[in-house]
From TrEMBL, chains A, B:
Organism: Megasphaera stantonii
GO molecular function, one term: hydrolase activity
Key words of the record: Hydrolase, Signal
CDD domains hit by this protein: Esterase_713_like-3
Origin superkingdom: Bacteria
Protein's UniProt name: Alpha/beta hydrolase
Signal peptide as annotated in the record: 1-21
């Protein structure tokens, strides 16, 4: 067993290293794996050995998740499993668009095992059991607005992003398409398999990943807590789903009704829900903001519903605790270390280790 | 600057860590970025602030590469930039299908800076400026055969893979589709941008990545050497492309003609070409083997052409140096550390550092 020791002089020189300014971290183990998924078989008898282009009887292994994991030396016991949102991959948690450390590096430095997924039919987990037509539709500005960066081309005054040419280029290029239909059951099945390999941990979701996050917690007892960053939806007991609130956004916030047994599972683990800044209290024609007003309202209703049934759900609207200007992308905003500290403080309060 | 020191007792306990058996490595810096790419703009005047679904005037940033990089403490100067092959992503270089260290970890332990790319229109670099229809066509066995694992369902006797259920599951799931048409110019433009960020280094390609590898070396003076693992094609001076050899494979091996100036660039940097085992000398109806017979022949012709013009190209057929049974996936075979050692030995001979 060889170890790598760093002389003080080298360490001092590393202090001048550019870009992310990550502190050196000793990685005990790292790697990647595919988790879950299914197999489809083409009908007919296999004949590919003599006729290579004959697909009869051949298989397709698809609908799995891809995970890259890193285990720092002397890691906390609790695994952190990260699930991205709409149009993103695991990249969403990596280096920020302006070249700073993302949550991957930040939580690694804090001593956590990190498991960063690409959901089925996305990114490196692109092999899908369903065909898909991908358009090449220009819509960068739709997302710029919807992610509360600003109103194109003008960022909001206090917003926590550089929004310069480099930032925009990297931010827009993070987006990557579905290679098969979005399917929450497929995703949560794969994420259950991810937790099967990662062990007990906290499921950290973003945006559209929120729904599969709730479902994964329902399916897997390895999910000991959830941190949902600006989730897009919430699970209520069937028959208790709040009415869909009117909004100027093209994306209304609808709750999802689930069997009571499933809902009650979400009352048995600690849950933290975070929303960032610039979310208005009143309806606004600025649809990219109104989109989040209705989600924050739904979040309040959900936290109440969970806690009424004996749960442990905490909702934090970051400006309420003095953290201002966050966009939908809390994990990569300029003050992302503050956001990570809020998350870690909560994890320590809940005694995950 | 904080450093993390590992007590001997912890190191000893880490020796028992499962799975990949990676030695702990101190990472000075790691992260990811998108490199290169283009922007397309929808015609018309932008109106998305009031009408969110109006795509007029919106942009699409696409056709970039995704890169995950790691810089170990006290790294060699030479960057290693890895470009995967057909149907693969950067995963191809990561943990092997049977859970051992891949080239990412192996070369990291050897002290190299590693830059692992997803090419444009693949994996996490899925945002494409061209639309794409993705079929869900079962063809695992086509690739099992074509990658010289065996003749489905029977692996070859001496082959360097486990080929058990776990291996097969992980191996097949590594495949991920194109999200836009395969385009060597698009790929090599992005890889040139990758080298622009990585600095001087060796371009390590696999299979279909070979073509873009040659082209990247032609475009970028940062490419100081090439290691091509079982490349699918070779660049010859226009008018000097060898005739396409007859084969039982559905994938004939055609050389590519390029302007003499471009070809000569490939004579000015050291090049190593590796092929693995089980490649027959005579034509065979086993098309998955014949596929590589004609490529190995083309490799010989190419190395001769390069060296005749003053180049420094080395071709190694691994059984010739006592390394047997390798499949097309040298980087993840059971003896991948031996393959990595061959590569490192060559790099040291060529004095890259």
């Amino acid at each position: 067993m060889k170890s790598i020791w760093i002389a003080a002089a080298v360490m001092a020189s590393l202090a001048a290293s550019p870009a992310s300014a990550m502190k050196p971290v000793t990685i005990a183990d790292q790697g990647s794996f595919m988790a879950g998924g299914t197999v489809v078989t083409a009908p007919g008898a296999y004949g590919g050995n003599t006729n290579p282009l004959n697909q009869a009887g051949q298989t397709l292994h698809g609908d799995h998740a891809y995970v890259f994991y890193q285990i720092p030396a002397q890691a906390h016991n609790t695994a952190l499993v990260f699930l991205h949102g709409y149009g993103q991959s695991g990249k969403t948690w990596e280096t920020t668009p302006d070249g700073r450390d993302g949550f991957q590096n930040i939580f690694l430095e804090k001593g956590y095992k990190t498991y960063i997924a690409d959901q089925p039919r996305r990114g490196r987990a692109g092999r899908s059991t369903e065909p898909q037509a991908i358009g090449a539709v220009p819509d960068d500005q739709l997302w710029y607005n919807n992610f509360r960066i600003g109103q194109w081309p003008q960022k909001f005054d206090n917003v926590q992003v550089r929004d310069d040419a480099v930032w925009r280029d990297q931010f827009f290029r993070q987006m990557t398409p579905d290679t098969g239909a979005y399917d929450e059951a497929v995703i949560s099945d794969a994420m259950k398999a991810v937790f099967g390999k990662a062990g007990d941990g906290v499921c950290i979701t973003h945006s559209q990943g929120g729904g599969p996050g709730w479902r994964t917690a329902i399916k897997s007892s390895h999910v000991k807590g959830i941190i949902a960053l600006e989730p897009g939806t919430f699970f209520f007991p069937e028959g208790q789903v709040p009415p869909v609130e009117e909004t100027t956004s093209p994306f209304p916030a609808a709750g999802v009704g689930v069997p009571m047994d499933d809902f009650m599972k979400l009352t048995r683990i600690p849950v933290l829900v975070l929303y960032g800044g610039n979310i208005p209290a009143e309806q606004t024609p600025v649809w990219g903001l109104d989109n989040w007003r209705v989600r924050l309202n739904l979040a309040k209703a959900w936290v109440d519903a969970v806690n009424r049934c004996g749960g442990d759900a905490t909702l934090i609207y970051l400006p309420d605790i003095g953290i201002y200007g966050n966009t939908h992308f809390l994990m990569s905003d300029l003050n992302n270390r503050d956001v990570a500290d809020v998350m870690e403080r909560w994890m320590k309060e809940k005694h995950f280790d």
